[in-house]
């Protein structure tokens, strides 16, 4: 047994009060049943089949109010895997659901049998024809694709609010549109071609000139049936008129019947039907989009009205003036948005009826923007606006920060309102459209209907297109509350269809919660054609049963998930998945959303449940140990849920008294530990690598077994040599700043084989050259930013070191008179922010007087303007650290790099390297997974310099790329050296 074994039962939820009605039953504790598990493993290989109960539970939730636990999860790597799974399902009478980002709001990404993950291995974009088109794989996020296209001045048409998380496969499969897409820029209108796999395994590339010929040979009955339906529709003028009328406004309810009118051949018809088919007709493996010009000049305003109908009545004015976006947010939405970073706090005091319109004009150049601004200003003279709180300006602006803040508040609608809902309630997101001219009338009717059923929903949406969203919260564990929701839905659907002839789903696609109402909207004849289409293309019903078509009138009430209360920091989570693209462990173990989903399932269980035991057994490694703790999830989450901090707290809970005491002792005696560590690294330097690396790996491996694997780091061959015993000599008199070399830079030296000064020498030298000399205190040894302890959850050790460093920094800086410059970004973050909760009241007051600067910020703001650049390199690639993202310092890193290199590149896939101090040495597999995409991008071409701002992050990137990374300040010293 390891010396410091984790405390048994520490991760068991404290609030288990189950069993909940939707808990996973005990007979499923073993995970995937036989022979399903063995057969798929033999077919695909064990690494592609997830079968543990924890795997099944973490894939059972998406951004919708539904929850269905699959029998097995398959990680498909290519079309061959997809075809193999489809063939297997046909032969065993099983069904298949495809899942990418899991941001769907209606349960489309959930299945009850075989669930296929088509995100992990399906990312990539190829820009074609100077950006006019783009070939994109289905696991690529909209934001990632647009980042690649922006270099060419182009952008995709669809622009959903979830662009940072949702993937193009899901966008096309749901015909998602967004703020500006309307009916003309959505996937149906801007797709050039797509490649898909039919349920029978036939692969169709609609761009292939021979596609129809090959399809006719492979599936003649399908081709005949499609053309037969086309003839029937075209022979019925009333039906043709009805179909055309339905798509004059936004509509994603059911299959795109206009595909039969727009397509002339079977392949062309299938191309249209696949858009918005929600994975029920085939798997979309690749898409080619016709892109649109990126109009960079904007003129925007957030305008406040006294009521929802008043705001809706103003929408036609802005549409007529040429606004590309008119977004509506009601009072509930605005008040809930206070939880979003950057939103004015006084919005919390807005009157209940207040409603805002976010209006934006776009132009290719400044002259166009100025013309838009003039038109907008004229419009405001005739509109009755209100300003009930001080932060409201009701004016148009082109300031990027201000405009970005407006959009951040709008895009956070679902998550902000969801985060503000009553704890333990389930969130429903509805999405409907009416003719834009009747929007004000529809708003009044919706408010009255909500009041009638006892709901106080939040409303927002794309008012320019008559498309609104509203959110309802109810208790899915209370049958009476479920019936209240069901009654509201019946009334709402009838209101939308019978009074407004609207769309029950405008852009979120039919999904499980609108499938029972499809015939209500379309009528029996059109609905029958949709059922015929499904039977024709998928005769065995293999793909996504009950997702789009369902004859059960209560299907929308089946599978509603309860949301049990867990840790308070996680309770606001609506499982939207916005956190997942930035999570370093997303392709290795679990994501922040999945960590919370697993906690909720534990709480649904009862004591003694075998399911609970299975979840707990996996949670230690899958959730806690392999969390990098970088908290980038907090930055991605619109309501700031910090799952990284929660995992650190779980690490704390696992510590026994002996382990916690050892952590505190190490903090108190850190001076000796620091010296010993540097000596050990120096000793390792003197051993030839062919002997030393295997030997040190064996020694640390034995220590990991004896003490605890999650505490003792592994030896890595990429670790740098020892730092110099002495720091550079400096003088306090005349110093412009106090320079604090982080302990990592006092222990480890610079890159192996790189000539020139060490990082401390470089910082001192370049500061001197700029006439801004720095002083290194003589007693920095034995101090630390406390991150070593904080990241592992050692509370006592963190308190010791946090208070020590703040007291020392107070003295060094003469009570905050001089700035404290720190040469490792994670240490800057640690001293500037993370130590605060651990300080005594007296030291918290001292800390408030300190000015902590990252050395990159010091260089960009204080040194660069005073330095002469004497030489540059041709190209540099940057690895911005996650700590820099938290501090908002990324632009300073670029500024320093641009002074040193002719070309500076930040990889589109740059993210947290997950080295996280020593976590990359505790779990090298975490860093390998986290850096894989960025490393592919970096190694695809040559660079003259590889730059970052944290020594251990540089080691992590060295290991990932085989290239040598170093501090941007070393490059700045070289560029300015006389």
Short description:
By secondary structure, this protein is of the alpha/beta class. The chain is 43% helix and 12% strand.
Give a description of the structure.
- The protein is α/β, with parallel strands linked by helices.
- 43% of the residues lie in helices and 12% in strands.
- It contains 42 helices and 25 strands.
- The protein has a 6-stranded antiparallel beta sheet with strand order 12-14-13-16-17-15, sandwiched between helices. A 5-stranded antiparallel beta sheet has the order 5-6-10-8-9. A 4-stranded mixed beta sheet has the order 1-2-4-3, with helices on one face.
Top keywords for this entry?
single chain, 978 residues, alpha/beta, 6-stranded antiparallel β-sheet, 5-stranded antiparallel β-sheet, 42 helices, globular
Rg over CA atoms: 29 Å
| Mean pLDDT level | 93
Strand order of the largest sheet: 12-14-13-16-17-15
Total strand count, please? 25
Tell me the major beta sheet.
Answer: 6 strands, antiparallel
Poorly predicted ranges: none
The coarse silhouette is globular
Q: How helical, in percent, are the residues? A: 40-55%
Global structural class: alpha/beta
Distance between the termini: 59 Å
- Proportion of residues in β-strands: 5-15%
- Tally of helical runs: 42
Topology:
Elements: H1 36-44, E1 49-50, H2 53-58, E2 72-75, H3 79-92, E3 96-99, E4 114-117, E5 125-128, E6 133-136, H4 142-150, E7 154-155, H5 168-174, H6 187-190, E8 191-197, E9 203-205, H7 211-218, H8 220-234, H9 237-246, H10 259-262, H11 266-274, E10 283-290, E11 292-293, E12 297-305, H12 308-320, E13 325-329, H13 331-336, E14 355-363, H14 366-380, H15 400-411, H16 413-420, E15 426-433, H17 439-452, E16 458-462, E17 467-474, H18 479-499, H19 511-514, H20 518-522, H21 524-537, H22 592-604, H23 610-625, H24 632-636, H25 643-654, H26 657-668, H27 670-685, H28 689-706, E18 737-740, H29 743-747, H30 759-769, E19 774-775, H31 787-790, H32 795-812, E20 820-822, H33 825-834, H34 841-849, E21 852-854, H35 855-863, E22 873-878, H36 882-887, H37 890-900, E23 901-905, H38 919-922, H39 924-930, H40 932-938, E24 945-948, H41 951-961, E25 965-967, H42 968-976
Parallel strand pairs: 2-4, 3-4, 18-19, 18-20, 20-21, 22-23, 22-24, 24-25
Antiparallel strand pairs: 1-2, 5-6, 6-10, 7-11, 8-9, 8-10, 12-14, 13-14, 13-16, 15-17, 16-17
């Amino acid at each position: 047994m390891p010396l410091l074994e984790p405390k048994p039962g520490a991760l068991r939820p404290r609030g288990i009060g189950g069993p909940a009605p939707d808990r996973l039953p005990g007979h499923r504790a073993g995970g995937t049943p036989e022979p399903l598990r063995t057969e798929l493993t033999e077919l695909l290989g064990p690494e592609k089949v997830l079968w543990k109960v924890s795997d099944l539970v973490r894939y059972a939730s998406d951004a919708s109010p539904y929850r269905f636990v699959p029998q097995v999860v398959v990680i498909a790597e290519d079309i061959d895997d997809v075809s193999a799974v489809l063939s297997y399902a046909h032969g065993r009478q099983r069904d298949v659901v495809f899942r990418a980002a899991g941001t769907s709001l209606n349960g489309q990404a959930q299945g009850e049998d075989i669930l296929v993950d088509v995100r992990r291995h399906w990312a990539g974009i190829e820009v074609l024809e100077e950006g006019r088109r783009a070939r994109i794989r289905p696991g690529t996020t909209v934001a990632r694709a647009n980042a690649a296209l922006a270099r060419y001045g182009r952008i995709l048409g669809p622009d959903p609010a979830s662009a940072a998380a949702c993937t193009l496969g899901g966008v096309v499969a749901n015909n998602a549109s967004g703020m500006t897409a309307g009916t003309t820029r959505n996937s149906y209108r801007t797709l050039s071609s797509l490649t898909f796999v039919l349920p029978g395994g036939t692969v169709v590339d609609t761009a292939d000139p021979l596609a129809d010929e090959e399809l006719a040979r492979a599936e003649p009955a399908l081709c005949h049936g499609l053309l037969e339906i086309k003839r029937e529709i075209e022979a019925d003028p009333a039906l043709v008129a009805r179909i055309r009328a339905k798509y004059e406004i936004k509509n994603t309810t059911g299959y795109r019947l206009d595909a039969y009118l727009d397509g002339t051949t079977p392949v062309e018809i299938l191309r249209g039907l696949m858009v918005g088919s929600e994975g029920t007709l085939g798997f979309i493996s690749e898409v080619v989009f016709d892109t649109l010009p990126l109009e960079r000049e904007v003129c925007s305003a957030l305008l406040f009205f006294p009521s929802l109908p008043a705001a809706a009545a103003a929408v036609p004015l802005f549409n007529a003036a040429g606004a590309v976006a008119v977004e509506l947010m009601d009072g509930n939405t605005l008040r809930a948005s206070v939880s979003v970073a950057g939103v004015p706090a006084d919005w919390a005091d807005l009157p209940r009826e207040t409603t805002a319109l976010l209006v934006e004009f776009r132009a290719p150049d400044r002259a166009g923007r100025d013309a838009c601004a003039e038109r907008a200003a004229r419009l405001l003279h005739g509109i009755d606006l209100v300003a009930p709180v001080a932060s409201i300006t009701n004016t148009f602006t082109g300031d990027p920060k201000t405009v970005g803040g407006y959009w951040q508040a709008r895009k956070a609608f679902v998550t902000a309102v969801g985060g503000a809902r009553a704890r333990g309630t389930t969130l429903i997101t509805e999405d409907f459209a009416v003719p834009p001219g009747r929007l004000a009338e529809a708003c009044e009717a919706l408010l009255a209907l909500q009041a009638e059923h006892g709901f106080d929903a939040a409303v927002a949406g794309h008012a320019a297109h008559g498309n609104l969203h509203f959110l309802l919260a109810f208790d899915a564990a209370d049958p009476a509350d479920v019936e209240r929701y069901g009654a509201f839905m019946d009334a709402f659907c009838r209101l939308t269809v019978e009074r407004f002839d609207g769309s029950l789903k405008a852009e979120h696609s039919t999904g499980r919660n609108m499938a029972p109402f499809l015939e209500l909207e379309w009528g029996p004849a059109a609905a029958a054609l949709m059922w015929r289409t499904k039977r024709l293309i998928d005769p065995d019903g293999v793909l996504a049963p009950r997702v789009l078509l369902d004859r059960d009138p209560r299907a929308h009430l089946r599978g509603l998930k309860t949301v049990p209360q867990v840790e308070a920091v996680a309770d606001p989570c609506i499982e939207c998945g916005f956190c997942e693209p930035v999570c370093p462990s997303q392709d290795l173990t679990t994501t922040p959303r999945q960590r919370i989903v697993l906690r909720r399932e534990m709480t649904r269980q009862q004591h003694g449940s075998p399911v609970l035991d299975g979840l707990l057994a996996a949670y230690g490694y899958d959730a806690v140990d392999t969390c990098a703790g970088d908290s980038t999830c907090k930055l991605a989450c619109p309501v700031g849920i910090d799952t990284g901090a929660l995992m650190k707290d779980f690490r704390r809970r696992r510590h026994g008294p002996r382990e916690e005491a050892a952590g505190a002792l190490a903090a108190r005696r850190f001076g000796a530990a620091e010296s010993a560590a540097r000596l050990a690294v120096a000793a390792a330097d003197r051993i030839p690598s062919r002997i030393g690396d295997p030997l040190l790996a064996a020694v640390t491996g034995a220590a990991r077994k004896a003490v605890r694997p999650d505490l003792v780091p592994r030896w890595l061959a990429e670790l740098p040599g020892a730092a110099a015993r002495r720091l550079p000599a400096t003088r306090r008199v005349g110093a412009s700043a106090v320079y604090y070399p982080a302990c990592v830079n006092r222990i480890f030296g610079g890159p192996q084989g790189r000539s020139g000064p060490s990082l401390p020498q470089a910082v001192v030298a370049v500061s001197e050259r700029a006439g801004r000399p720095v002083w290194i205190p003589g007693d920095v040894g034995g101090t630390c930013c406390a991150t070593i302890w904080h990241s592992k959850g050692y509370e006592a050790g963190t308190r010791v070191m946090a208070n020590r460093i703040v007291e020392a920094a107070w003295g060094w800086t003469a009570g905050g008179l001089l700035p404290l410059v720190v040469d490792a970004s994670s240490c800057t973050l640690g001293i500037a922010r993370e130590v605060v909760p651990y300080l005594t009241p007296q030291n918290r007051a001292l800390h408030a007087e300190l000015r902590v600067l990252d050395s990159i910020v010091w260089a960009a703001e204080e040194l660069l303007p005073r330095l002469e650049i004497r030489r540059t390199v041709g190209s540099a690639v940057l690895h911005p650290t996650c700590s820099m993202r938290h501090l908002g310092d990324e632009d300073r890193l670029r500024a320093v790099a641009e002074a040193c290199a002719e070309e500076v590149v930040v990889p589109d896939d740059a993210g947290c390297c997950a080295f996280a101090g020593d976590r990359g040495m505790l779990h090298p597999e975490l860093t390998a997974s986290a850096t894989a995409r960025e490393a592919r991008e970096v190694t695809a071409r040559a660079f003259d310099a590889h730059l970052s701002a944290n020594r251990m992050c540089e080691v992590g990137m060295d290991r990932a790329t085989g290239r040598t990374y170093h501090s941007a300040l070393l490059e700045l010293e070289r560029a300015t050296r006389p």
